Amino acid sequence: MQETPFCLSVGHLLPYTMSDSNSTDFTNPSTFILLGIPGLEAAHVWISIPFCAMYAIVILGNFTILFIVKREPSLHGPMYYFLCMLVVADVVPSTAILPKMLSIFWFNSREINFSACLTQMFCLLSCSVMHSGILVAMAFDRYMAICDPLRYSSTLTNPVVAKIGLALVLRGVMLVLPLPFLVRRWPYCRTNIIPYTYCKHISVVKLACADIRLSSYYSLAVAFLVTGVDVFCIAMSYTQILRAIFSLPTKDARLKTFGTCGSHLCVILASYSLHLVSALTERFGHNMALHFHVLMNNIYLMVPPMLNPIIYGVRTQQIRDSLLQLFTH
């Protein structure tokens, strides 16, 4: 997925660029062109059907979780407040990319304003950092509930949960904010065509006529720092949780206690496994077709937000019972 072969392969799209075909530099493009899924343009309408269905499930499932937690007083606790934060961190990225993706698939509307592109990029990156942090907060919640239940209510009070949520938002914003600022400062050359359905950071950066090492090193450092620290914290929490579970006297008690962590563990596996597959595909899949990379990135952004409400709805008894009561009523 090298840039030069791609530029050669989209020569027929040069009328879309912001400059004349003889020009080699435009410092401030007002728009970028999103190709959608290169090579599969004829199937765009058909490809839109599963993505539209996934987005419908994302909206319906996640807003059902929010409605049930708000409606049911017994769910007004730290675990479900963190779940609501996770819901918001899931819905925002999906909503940031899917309307534009569908406009490309249905109406061939490929142009995206430069500021809108930066906003989309910021939403995706910051929500990804927030999502990872919320999984850590949920692991800490399970650690307190299982390993130190007597102090659970006094430690994770509503003000503490609110402060944790605010800290996670600030972490996501502050770590990601330098990236769109750097992108805005650079001059751009040759083309304004992005071979994706959304403004992926690295694809926009590659269009710049400047030294992009600072952005590359910073984004890599943030990715390693966030993922490394968060996975370490989750692993430490579950190490202590498993020690506490295996110290319980009976098998039934161990299974029941471990069951309270089941939903969270499933969400962690879904999120980080897809993230790992996407990262490995980007790193080692240079011989794979471009449309495969684009599809993988879209699936990575849409599948976890679709699965999370299903996992919590099926595995969490309180949510399942509240949902059944709502329908039977």
Index terms:
12 helices; 5 strands; globular; 329 residues; three-stranded mixed beta sheet; disordered N terminus; two-stranded antiparallel ribbon; 4% strand; mainly alpha
Task: Write structural notes for this entry.
Residues 1-25 have low confidence and may be disordered. The longest helix is centred in the middle third of the chain and has 34 residues, at 114-147. The protein is 73% helix and 4% strand. It starts with a helix and ends with a helix. With 329 residues, the protein is mainly alpha-helical. The protein has 12 helices and 5 strands. A 3-stranded mixed β-sheet has the order 3-2-5. Strands 1-4 form a two-stranded antiparallel sheet.
Task: Report the strand count.
Answer: 5
How helix-rich are the residues, as a percent range? over 70%
Biggest beta-sheet profile? 3 strands, mixed
Low-confidence stretches: 1-25
Name the shape in a single word. Answer: globular
Give the SSE string. HEEHHEHHHHEEHHHHH
Radius of gyration, CA atoms, in whole angstroms: 22 Å
Strand order of the largest sheet: 3-2-5
Structural class category:
mainly alpha
Query: How many H/I helical runs?
Result: 12
Query: Oligomeric form of this entry?
Result: single chain
Distance between the ends: 54 Å
Rounded mean pLDDT score = 84
Portion in strands: under 5%
